[in-house]
Amino acid sequence: MTKSFVEELRWRGMLQDIMPGTEEQLMKEMTTAYVGIDPTADSLHIGHLCGIMMLRHLQACGHKPIALIGGATGMIGDPSGKSAERNLLTEEILSHNVACIREQLEHFLDFNSDAPNAAELVNNYDWMKDYTFINFTRDIGKLITVNYMMAKDSVKKRFNGEFSQGMSFTEFTYQLLQGYDFVYLNEHKNCLMQMGGSDQWGNITTGIELMRKMNGKTAFALTCPLITKADGGKFGKTESGNVWLSKKYTSPYKFFQFWMNVSDDDAKRYIKIFTSLTREEIEALIAEHEEAPHLRVLQKRLAKEVTTMVHSEADYNAAVEASNILFGNATADALRALDEETFLDIFNGVEQYEIPMTDLKAGIGPLDLLAERTNIFPSKGEARKMIQANGFSLNKEKLTDPQTPLTDANLLNGKYLLFQKGKKNYYLVVAR
Question: I need a labelling partner for 8 at 20 to 30 A (CA). Which of 171, 292, 333, 379 fits?
Answer without folding.
Answer: 292
